[in-house]
Amino acid sequence: MHAFTTLLIFVAFAAMSVSVSAAPLQRRTCRPHSQIAAASSSTHASSTSHVTTATSSAQATSSKVSNAPSSSKATSTEAATSTKAATSTKAATSTKAASTKVASITASSSATPSAVGAASSSTLLKELFPVPHSAFWTTSSASPDALPLNDATFGVTNLLKALPLNYVNAPDGKYSLKSFYPQGSYTFTHDIIGGVSFYGTGPKSVSLANAKEATLSYSVYFEDGFDFNLGGKLPGFFGGDDFQTAVSCSGGRRDDGCFSTRFMWRTDGAGELYTYLPPDFAENKAVCNVPPFSTCNDVYGASVGRGIFTFKSGTRTLIGQRVRLNDVGQANGELELFVEGKSMFTVKGLVFRDTDGARIQGLQMQSFFGGSESKWASPKDQSAYFSDFSVAITETF
């Protein structure tokens, strides 16, 4: 009898389980001459040191229904944390549903890389292409398929003509795109301007038109003694419903039809991702919770993972990002940050788009001091040098 009773208890406990269903998408109530090569890339490896789960703080009302399946702050003067309850600005006749989205943030390393030293060609290519891919282009001389670092390779468009592009040998000898920041310069709307500003669609032979996921990597050399002041912007991906809509997604202009994922430096060279994501989706609050420090606001971009790595002057730092577009109607987009080819964090459960036609459009090639106030200005004449630009398509639609 005792054995029989024990067996019954065992069966009862074995039958107990907890099932958590995915939360539905919430709507807040508010792409020259290149060789396409098969991947010679490294495995997408990263040692996970700890995993935290961030829960979106805002409960939102969905105004769109889709049957697509689901998959994976130092105070800033232009950013203030917001808990704004969102009201949908788009009319829809679909059923409305409200819930709180749980998003996952994986911090892949507790280390804080600062710079890239001398690297063999194979090592450098692995760092530039940290994810297996099907097609790519690169300006890195480490690759036998390297394209020239010039306007044609970038597919330059929307160039700010007051800042012509200047390709030079950097102080470390690497051929680079030079970004000169005169003393007193910040943003592009004042008497003294500096940096670079254009959009790049990339080589026509490697089109992003069918890319569901892509990576962008490059190296940046801040001259010796560079004064980072309060911070400044660095190039990243941009995308949206179409090119013209997508180029508008920065400078405080936010829209569900566009997104951007630039890098940024902060005081003392603290590095981060600086994002503009569709504002009407509460799931995107997940970027507000990335350690060691993140902050969001309702006007400007989100400071994501500030200080998880550090830019150093007088040496070259290699940075990268991976953007995976969500399925329409599902919060399964992903954003990942790499430093020297090593994954630093991944934010899952994001919404980059709410229309089937929205795509990664190319590179938002902007760098400047700012910040929208004069206290962000460059304290002196100084320069940064960009090289090794590399884009890979890692998943297609």
Automatic annotation (TrEMBL):
Return one GO MF term.
lyase activity
Keywords in alphabetical order, please: Lyase, Signal
| Span of domain Polysaccharide lyase | 172-389
Q: Which domain of life is it from?
A: Eukaryota
Q: In the record, what lineage is assigned to the organism producing the protein? A: Eukaryota, Fungi, Dikarya, Basidiomycota, Agaricomycotina
Leader sequence segment? 1-22
Q: Pfam family example for this protein?
A: Polysacc_lyase_14
Annotated region Disordered: the residues are 34-91
Protein name from the UniProt record: Polysaccharide Lyase Family 14 protein
InterPro entries for this protein: Polysacc_lyase_14
